[in-house]
Design a protein that fits this description.
By secondary structure, the protein is mainly α. The protein has a domain of about 30 residues. The protein is about 55% helix and about 0% strand. The protein has 3 helices and no strands. The longest helix is centred in the last third of the chain and has 19 residues. The termini are far apart. This is Antitoxin. It comes from Nostocoides vanveenii.
Length: about 80
């Protein structure tokens, strides 16, 4: 099938790079890219790294209240400065 496709400049750059890397035609590179995208190749889910932060140095049972108080203090200090 023949059709007209308008590519964004960055997409064209990626496609032309793939053409030179693989030594294939524009048509082949475009068809391969579309097939790969439509095939739904899923990337492995991102896993957040976990770090042991040790024993807390403060009681965290009321951490949200403490955070709220710190935020209130910061807001009051900003208002006093006129910021």
């Amino acid at each position: 099938m023949r059709t007209t496709v308008t590519l964004d400049p960055d997409t064209e750059h990626l496609l032309r790079r793939r053409m030179s890397e693989k030594g294939v035609s524009f048509k082949r590179a475009l068809n391969d890219a579309i097939r790969a995208g439509l095939a739904g190749r899923e990337q492995a889910p991102y896993e957040t790294p976990i770090f042991d932060m040790g024993v807390p140095t403060v009681d965290l049972t009321k951490a949200l209240r403490i955070a709220g108080e710190l935020e209130d203090e910061h807001l009051l200090a900003s208002l006093r400065r006129g910021a």
